[in-house]
Amino acid sequence: MKKYQSQSVLTDILPTIDNIERALQIEGEDEQFQSLQKGVKMVHESLLKALEDNGLEVIKTDGEQFDPNYHQAVMQDDNPDYESGQITQELQTGYKLKDRVLRPSMVKVNQ
Predict the structure, then answer these.
(1) Going by C-beta distance under 8 Å and a sequence separation of 6 or more, which residues neighbour residue 22?
(2) 77 vs 89: CA distance, rounded Å
(3) pLDDT tens-digit series, residues 94-106
(4) Are 77 and 107 in contact (CB under 8 A)?
(5) Of 73, 42, 62, which is closest to residue 34 (Cα–Cα)?
(6) Could you report the per-residue pLDDT of 5-51, keeping only the tens digit for each?
(7) Contact present, 60 and 94 (Cβ < 8 Å)
(8) Domain positions in the chain
(9) Residue 1 has pLDDT above 70, yes or no
(10) What is the rounded (10 degree) CA torsion for 67, 74, 25, 14?
């Protein structure tokens, strides 16, 4: 029970992490925007570090084979550069706490 005591808090924070990551994808040219984006990036990195210190782990998807225990396929791809069943794109980051999946990664999988 103690091993998973932070599960509900971590699950509640995941949408906030998603929103910060969406904010970091916005592009801008001016110096004020760049400064703001740098601050948001620092907050994001600090938050992820604190959560990782409490057992949160990112589920790997880059170049991985699809595993229904950790990934949720929401799209199919037909890319000759990838093997059949290999993940071609991560659409939403997945997380686990120790060995328990909090949220599977939403991915695009090659046919």
Answers:
(1) none
(2) 9
(3) 999 988 999 999 9
(4) no
(5) 42
(6) 788 889 999 999 999 999 999 999 899 999 999 999 999 999 999 99
(7) no
(8) 2-110
(9) no
(10) -70
- Domain 2-110 superfamily per CATH: Head domain of nucleotide exchange factor GrpE (2.30.22.10)
- Token pair listed for 46: 């600090």
Q: In whole angstroms, what is the distance from residue 100 CA to residue 25 CA?
A: 29
Classify residue 78 as left (phi > 0), alpha (psi -120 to 50) or beta. Answer: beta
100 Cβ contact partners less than 8 Å away, ≥ 6 residues apart? 4, 7
The rounded distance, in Å, linking the Cα atoms of 67 and 48 is 24
- Contact indicator for 104, 11 with CB cutoff of 8 Å: no
**What stretch of H or E contains 91?**
strand 87-92
